[in-house]
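Ticket #4471: structure output looks truncated?

Reporter: J.K.
Steps to reproduce: submitted the chain below (87 residues) through the standard prediction queue, then opened the result file.
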Amino acid sequence: MTRASYPLKLPASIKDAAARLAKEDGVSLNQWISVAIAQKIGAVETAAEFLKQRAGPAKPVDMLSFLDQAASETPPHGDEFESARSL
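Returned output as attached by the reporter:
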């Protein structure tokens, strides 16, 4: 396995919590952070792949017909699109 260094700057509270959890797991802080990053990568890539498969060949433009049929309601305050605010 090839290793690469990366200077990681963490807020003290996050570093302290990670160090505590690493100690509870009986591993080094470096190993604990590496596993945490690997888990996050796996979750993000799995979700992206699931959504890609679920969408199939659909494209964003394919949703326009559904949106055209939707009721015209004003979105709740704070839920507007930025471009809609400037119209």
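Triage note (M.O.): checked the attachment and the full token line is present. The first helix runs from residue 12 to 25.
Status: closed, working as intended.
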